[in-house]
Design a protein that fits this description.
The protein is α+β, with helices and mostly antiparallel strands. It has 15 helices and 17 strands. InterPro entries: Amidase, Amidase_dom, AS_sf, Carboxybiuret_hydro_AtzE.
Length: 446
């Protein structure tokens, strides 16, 4: 499927109808989505009604909006009117249906976009792999034997496969940036609290954010503008760059290191103090908030949870309040340190993931010379950034014919427009950009 901007232009100009494009999208999903294990529900009826409404607006000479007729999907933790919000768990498969759409969905529909699917995730967003006990493991369209990353893996896989122009995921500790890196997409974790969270099933509310996956930078910018309600134009001043060193320069692919050096060869290398402690505190806060959220359900029916998720939630629920308070106090100090560190710069550059997508049959990655579970450690470079609440933009290195890999562009709070402008400059230089997988999906590429 073509990009969101091209689709919207075609619909708004009357060259194609939203209904035609939707039918093409639904046909492609029916034929090609199954091997990815990425789609959990298709909303064909409501989508057709929305498409007919958009076509009627065009016929009446009215503008349906900047995303006119663009199909999209959302991670399975967004409220969708008339459906239960399951958060990827059988525990809520029969929950009362949502009475209205999540606010982000409402804004996208108001801009003309058409919701067609809900998408696979780690249960309750607790993981970096999209290994789901109910729906299965989402596969990477660049190589079906490999993980797509998580916890928003379904949202990434359908866009990387070209089945939807964009999707929404959520990011607590890297759940957008990790799958964006592993599937070769643009993926944004915004400034904490900048995009609407109303109607999104929480994981750890003090970290949770939503954001888009796209296969083009132009699509990302427009979708962000719709969701944020503000322009992506910045002041156009020269962008001051720094490289993140220390732990961010360890557990890094040589291609990421070379790209960072090419982007900012003369940029200073800054080291973040207490980075290991920050990641530990992030784990603790995440576990504690997630455990508290699910404490009553665990007491009522613990065996209904995915065993790997259940054990971590129980451990989090048992953490002492004093330890949680200590971690939050450290977080405030660490954020102040990071604000001082980034003050002389506009963007910090770091790897998004420590490696390419690991194989599904052995989901481990090399960290500090030892093989560790991918489900926990793919977020080694993203988790400390979530801890600050800073915006972080995962951008794909341009690697046609090779497994995808991404970088993080990290900005000051509210600095998304500058991240977008830098990403455009790097795309023009050919350093970054999306290389779509071959079809049919098959793998063993290096």
């Amino acid at each position: 499927m073509t990009g969101a901007m091209a689709i919207a232009q075609s619909v708004r100009s009357g060259q194609q109808s939203a209904t035609q494009l939707l039918d093409q999208c639904l046909t492609a999903l029916a034929k090609e989505a199954a091997p990815l294990c990425a789609v959990t529900r298709i909303m064909a009826g409501p989508a057709r009604r929305d498409a007919a409404r958009i076509d009627a607006l065009v016929a009446a000479g009215r503008d349906p909006g900047p995303l006119a007729g663009v199909p999209f999907g959302v991670k399975d933790l967004f409220d969708i009117a008339g459906l239960p919000t399951t958060a990827g768990s059988r525990l809520y498969a029969d929950a009362p249906p949502a009475t209205q759409d999540a606010e982000a969905i409402r804004r996208l529909k108001a801009a003309g976009a058409i919701l067609v699917a809900s998408l696979n995730m780690d249960e309750f967003a607790y993981g970096f792999a999209t290994i789901n006990a109910l729906h299965g493991t989402t596969r990477n369209p660049h190589d079906l034997t490999r993980l797509a990353g998580g916890s928003s893996g379904g949202s990434a896989a359908v866009v990387a496969a070209g089945l939807l122009p964009f999707s929404l995921g959520s990011d607590t500790n890297g759940s957008i940036r990790v799958p964006a890196s592993l599937t070769g997409l643009y993926g944004l974790k915004p400034t904490h609290g900048a995009l609407p969270m109303t109607g999104v099933f929480p994981f750890a509310e003090s970290f949770d954010d939503i954001g888009p996956f796209t296969a083009s930078l132009a699509d990302m910018v427009t979708i962000w503008e719709v969701l944020a309600g503000r322009s992506a134009q910045d002041d156009g001043a020269p962008i001051r760059l720094a490289q993140l060193g220390g732990r961010f320069a360890e557990n890094i692919d040589p291609d990421q290191s070379a790209a960072i050096d090419a982007i900012a060869p003369d940029a200073p290398v800054v080291t973040v103090p207490d980075i290991a402690r920050a990641r530990s505190a992030a784990f603790l806060i995440t576990a504690s908030e997630g455990g508290r959220l699910h404490r009553a359900a665990l007491a009522r029916d613990a065996m209904a949870f995915d065993p790997q998720v259940r054990d971590r939630l129980i451990a989090g629920a048992l953490l002492p309040d004093g330890l949680y308070a200590e971690a939050q106090a450290f977080r405030a100090r660490f954020r102040a340190t990071m604000l001082d560190l980034i003050a002389p710069y506009d963007v910090l550059i770091a790897p998004a993931t420590p490696c390419t997508a690991p194989p599904i049959d052995d989901p481990r990655i090399l960290i500090d010379g030892a093989m560790t579970p991918a489900r926990a450690d793919l977020g080694i470079h993203s988790q400390p950034i979530s801890f600050t609440g800073f915006p972080s933009f995962s951008i794909p290195l341009y690697r046609p014919g090779r497994l995808p890999l991404g970088l993080q562009l990290i900005g000051k709070p509210g600095g998304e427009p500058t991240l977008f402008r830098l990403a455009a400059m790097l795309e023009q230089r050919g350093i970054t950009g999306v290389a779509m997988p071959g079809h049919p999906y098959s793998g063993d590429i290096a």
